[in-house]
Amino acid sequence: MSGFDFVTTRLETAIGWGRKFSLFHYPFITACCGMEYMSTACAHFDIDRFGAGLTRFSPRQADLLLVVGTITHKLAPVLKTVYDQMLEPKWVIAFGACTVSGGIYQNYAVVQGIDRIIPVDIYIPGCPPRPEMVLDGLLKLQDKIQDQKQDWRWARKP
Amino acid sequence: MGQETLIEAIRAKLGDAVEGVSDSFGDPVVTLRPAAVRAAMAALREAPFDYAVLLDVTCVDFAAAEGRFELVYHLYSLSRNVRLRLKASLPAADSAVETLVGLWKNAEWLEREVFDMFGVRFDGHPYLKRILTYEGFEGHALRKSYPWRLGQPRIPLKDDV
User: Measured between CA atoms, how close is A80 to chain B, in angstroms?
Assistant: First the structure.
């Protein structure tokens, strides 16, 4: 282990710490789960306590995509475009049963889980999930971000 | 106008357009010949019936039945505060009926929905295109013959997740 590795490891810890407490989220809300998102985001449960309070209404300024509510086949290309517009590094939370698996809608219209369209980091089940579950999911995402390795462009690739 | 006098008046006005009359939870249900739907609606819209509002147009698919598609119209009279339900059975082979767009403007979208979901054609409709599903959707989703889980994705989906 060279001295350089030691520096990047410490730097990764610092960057992960910075990133996990400054999540700018984009709420992609289509259905009733939006109510739970609102109570989570507002004063009662307050995701600002965890550093995720800055809601951005442009995917270009966001690094956390909250997919909240049923995604239909008609809407799928829109969600894909929104995800593609976000800048790296970016994370996705599937919020509620519909986004996780299609939920109660096993029919011709609904996509059976958004992971068939875009990659998902955290799945929050529930119909709708309680705000406590959303905060739990957010904390798990923070743990994940903290442990993520950075893509050091100048580092020698194996 | 009481229920029985109303039905008498409707029978007198519409003549042989009426195939039958029944009762559903206190509201009258009138079954019409499909060919007479437009004329009957035009008559019911005027006094003394005065059904000024077209509340809903929808459809039922009875799959194997002789009259496969049953159109259901809901009318409402503002002046008398009563409702009326009308039905018309269409055969599977020739499921078409005359449009009501000339009588009620909101029939345009209601009929487009029935066309989209059941494939019933409305003759004389100014813009009979799909309204809920997207361009390129094949078949009619609420027909009993449609495979109920068959999605029609617009973008490639990952299957192995």
Answer: 9
Task: Report the complex ipTM.
Answer: 0.81
Chain B residue with minimum CA distance to A109: B151
Q: What is the CATH number of domain B3-123?
A: 3.30.460.80
Chain A and chain B share a number of CB contacts under 8 A equal to 44
- Is-above-0.90 flag for pTM? no
Q: Does B160 touch chain A (CB under 8 A)?
A: no
Q: Residues A98-117: pLDDT tens digits?
A: 999 999 999 999 999 999 99
Kindly list the domain boundaries of chain A, sorted by start residue.
Answer: 21-146
Which has the closest alpha carbon to A106: A136, A72, A139?
Answer: A72
How confident is the model over B96-130, as pLDDT tens digits? Answer: 999 999 999 999 999 999 999 999 999 999 999 99
Strand B82-90 to strand B27-32: parallel, antiparallel, or no bridges (unpaired)?
parallel
When the candidates are 3.40.50.2300, 3.40.190.10, 3.40.50.12280, 3.90.180.10, the CATH number that belongs to A21-146 is 3.40.50.12280
Does residue B34 contact residue B89 with C-beta atoms inside 8 Å?
yes
